[in-house]
Amino acid sequence: MDKFKKVFDRAYSAFVPSEKEKAKLDRDAEHLINLLNKNATNNAVNVEFRFGGSYAKGTWIKNESDIDIFAVFNSEDEMKSLSFLVPKNFIPTFGTRKYFRGSFNGIKIEVVPVLRFSDIKSVKNSIDLSVLHANYINSFLSSSQKKDVIILKAFCKANNCYGSETYMHGFSGYSLEVMIKEFGSFMGLIKAVNSWKMPVSIGKAPDKTSFPIFLLDP
């Protein structure tokens, strides 16, 4: 165990952000969201901006910070106004909805429109559920488990299996966070993986699935 501890201590030092990095990112994040709110007020747009992704959960890899911001609207039609609320250098990008990518003080930013909902069963676009992820993960993961998430992300990235993009065939950050929650730690997950036989179900899977790994979004 001492050998593993030394490896993990080195990994934490290499990949877990310092307090100085966190403080700078917090300042830039606050500056940006204040700018977005000011633009919304000046243009009389009814929208709520919320932080999401690894920034909101404190699980980004050292020196690889980015900030996801959800723009919560009451209707699909109102989302069209997002294009003139974001900084002018932000570029429209297309996923399940049009969103915006750009850079702010050297930090990669994504501003994603989502639809407000009161009943989870009414949600038709999966991206709308993403606003729930940060609160969920923050309510379950300890600070040490978040460090293990960061190490797991770095491990997957080194093995070319980190990223939710279709071409990557990899794990999203959220899926790795959920697995640390389910298995308790990086080592807990590795021990579990060692005994896996495909297909694997983490959470209750449907009766039939064609996927080698099925992870239920809790």
Features:
218 residues; alpha/beta; five-stranded mixed beta sheet; two-stranded parallel sheet; 7 helices; 39% helix
How would you characterize the overall build of this protein?
- This protein is α/β, with parallel strands linked by helices and 218 residues long.
- Helices cover 39% and strands 18% of the residues.
- It contains seven helices and seven strands; from the N terminus they run ααβαββββααααββ.
- The chain has helices at 2-15, 19-42, 53-57, 133-140, 143-158, 173-183, 186-193, and strands at residues 48-52, 66-73, 91-94, 98-104, 107-115, 200-202, 213-215.
- The strands form two sheets. A five-stranded mixed sheet has the order 1-2-5-4-3.
- β3 (91-94) and β4 (98-104) form a beta hairpin.
- α6 (173-183) crosses α7.
- The mean pLDDT is 92.
Mind sketching the topology for me?
Blueprint: H1 2-15, H2 19-42, E1 48-52, H3 53-57, E2 66-73, E3 91-94, E4 98-104, E5 107-115, H4 133-140, H5 143-158, H6 173-183, H7 186-193, E6 200-202, E7 213-215
Parallel strand pairs: 2-5, 6-7
Antiparallel strand pairs: 1-2, 3-4, 4-5
Helix pairs in contact: 1-5, 5-6, 6-7
Q: Could you give the order of the helices and strands?
A: HHEHEEEEHHHHEE
Q: How many alpha or pi helices?
A: 7
Helix share bin? 25-40%
Quickly give the structural class: alpha/beta
Largest β-sheet summary: 5 strands, mixed
How would the global form be characterised? globular
Contiguous uncertain segments of 5+ residues: none
- The beta-strand count equals 7
